[in-house]
Design brief:
The protein has a six-stranded mixed sheet with strand order 1-6-5-2-4-3, with helices on both faces. The protein is built from nine helices and six strands; from the N terminus they run βαβαβααβααβααβα. 46% of the residues lie in helices and 11% in strands. Helix 2 crosses helix 9 and helix 4 runs antiparallel to helix 5. It has 234 residues and is an alpha/beta fold.
Length: 234
C-alpha cells in the first residue's frame, strides 16, 4: 500500500479557503481502479461493516428506484452508442456519460446535512478517462467536472490486466467500453486497460492518493481499503 500526496493539495498557496460549518459537501473519499478491479466487491463488504459511511455508485444494484433512469442511460451509452461509434460522435457519448457524473455529484451534495462521510465509486475520474479513450477531445464538460468538490483521498486499486482478464471470464464478460477492437481479445483488452490506468492516474496526480495493490483475496483488499477510509473519514 502506497500513499502519495498531490502537489496541489499540499501547496498552501492553492489550499481551499476554510468553509463555515455545515456548508459544502461532507467529507468523502473515492475508490477507483481499472475495469474488473473488484471495486463493487470491496464496496459491498464495506457497506456491511461500516454503516456510518454513505456509499455512492451508479451500479444498477446501488441506485434507488427513482434513479433508475441512470441505469437506462448508462446501458444505452454502452449498447447503443459505444457499440456503434460510427453512428455517434465522441461528444455525444460524453454528453450521455455526464448524466452519471452529475448524479454522483448531486448525491454527494444531497448528503451535506447528514453528517455522514461518503465513499464514491470512481467519481468523475474513470468516466473522464473513458470519454477520452472513446475519442472525445478536451471539453468544457471536463473543465466543469474538475470544479466539483475534491475528495480527501483517492484510493486506487492497482490490479494487473492479467488478473482482470481472468475475472472477466477471459473476455466473456467485457463490454465495448473495456477493450480496443470490435471483439474482446487479450491484446485489445491489455492495451485499453493500460491506457485507462494512465489517464486515471494522470487525472488524480494532484490529489492525495493511496495505491493498494492486488492481494489476490477480496477480504484482504477490503481490509486495506477500510484502514485508509477509517483514517480519513473516522
Amino acid at each position: 500500500m502506497t500513499d502519495t500526496d498531490g502537489a496541489t493539495s499540499a501547496d498552501p498557496d492553492h489550499a481551499a479557503p476554510p468553509r463555515p460549518p455545515n456548508s459544502g459537501p461532507p467529507p468523502f473519499c473515492v475508490l477507483v481502479g481499472p475495469d474488473h478491479a473488484g471495486k463493487s466487491t470491496v464496496l459491498a463488504r464495506l457497506e456491511r461493516t461500516s454503516p456510518a459511511w454513505r456509499f455512492l455508485s451508479v451500479d444498477d444494484d446501488r441506485l434507488s428506484p427513482e434513479h433508475a433512469l441512470i441505469s437506462r442511460l448508462r446501458r444505452a451509452a454502452v449498447t447503443e452508442v459505444a457499440a456503434h461509434p460510427d453512428a455517434w460522435s465522441p461528444e455525444f457519448f460524453t454528453t450521455l456519460v455526464q448524466t452519471a457524473v452529475v448524479h454522483l455529484r448531486d448525491e454527494l451534495l444531497r448528503g451535506a446535512g447528514s453528517g455522514r462521510p461518503a465513499v464514491i465509486d470512481s467519481y468523475y475520474y474513470k468516466f473522464l478517462a473513458k470519454c477520452r479513450l472513446a475519442g472525445a477531445p478536451d471539453s468544457p464538460l471536463f473543465a466543469w467536472w474538475r470544479t466539483f468538490p475534491r475528495p480527501q483521498r483517492v484510493i486506487y486499486l492497482d490490479v494487473p490486466p492479467e488478473t482482470t482478464w481472468r475475472r472477466s471470464g477471459e473476455g466473456a464478460g467485457l463490454n465495448p467500453l473495456e477493450h480496443y477492437g470490435p471483439r474482446p481479445e487479450w491484446d485489445g483488452f491489455r492495451r485499453y486497460q493500460r491506457d485507462l490506468a494512465k489517464l486515471i492516474r494522470d487525472e488524480i496526480q494532484d490529489l492525495p492518493v493511496t495505491v493498494i495493490e492486488d492481494g489476490g483475496r477480496a477480504e484482504h483488499t477490503a481490509t486495506a481499503v477500510r484502514e485508509v477510509l477509517t483514517r480519513e473519514l473516522g
